[in-house]
């Protein structure tokens, strides 16, 4: 019995790590497209342009700490300490994975706007698939997605809808920061806005396909 349980746990971790890497590839494709940073990184990137106290990665880590704090405040006794620790570690590991993913696709050259747009769409699809795999692994998530899940659990709203809301929120705040302090948009373009709506919608579609497939069994 324990062996079966151990196998299940290991499979969940394998799924999660796979989802983490797939998600990092999605971010890499989006970055390669050059049509705007992903929603969750939009605020840290914008702040790093106007405040050099921390690097872009430093502000991204600070946002992760805030997202983890929100989870703890919402879930309280239901919060799993081990998962919180894992999330904190993953906030740094994910950065290295993203750098590696960017290296893997570095030979790809994107010269025209149609190619940029297709690359951006591919990034959204891959990112959504990676997040969906993480959800199915059910072990841990990156702080941003885990915060969305915690809010979903507390409010009883669909996770995908919570994600779309916060993606739009991140982009709106990032755009405001750029316009107020620099006078122009940088790192927030049409790709960011499309991703805010598309990634959550794709996850919703994957959930429906998965539910329909399981229902036939």
Overview of the molecule:
- The protein is mainly alpha-helical and 217 residues long.
- It has one domain.
- The protein is 81% helix and 0% strand.
- The protein has 8 helices and no strands.
- The chain has helices at residues 2-33, 39-50, 56-75, 81-104, 113-137, 143-155, 159-181, 190-215.
- Helix 3 (56-75) runs antiparallel to helix 4.
- It is globular, with a radius of gyration of 18 Å.
- The two termini are 25 Å apart.
- The mean pLDDT is 84.
**Total of domains:** 1
Low-confidence stretches: none
Main beta-sheet annotation: none
* C-alpha geometry: globular
**Could you give the count of β-strands?**
0
Count the DSSP helices: 8
Mean model confidence by pLDDT: 84
Spell out the key features of this protein:
217 residues; mainly alpha; globular
In short:
This protein is mainly α.
What is the fold's blueprint, element by element?
Elements lengths: L1 H32 L5 H12 L5 H20 L5 H24 L8 H25 L5 H13 L3 H23 L8 H26 L2
Helix pairs in contact: 1-4, 1-5, 2-3, 2-7, 3-4, 3-6, 5-8, 6-7, 7-8
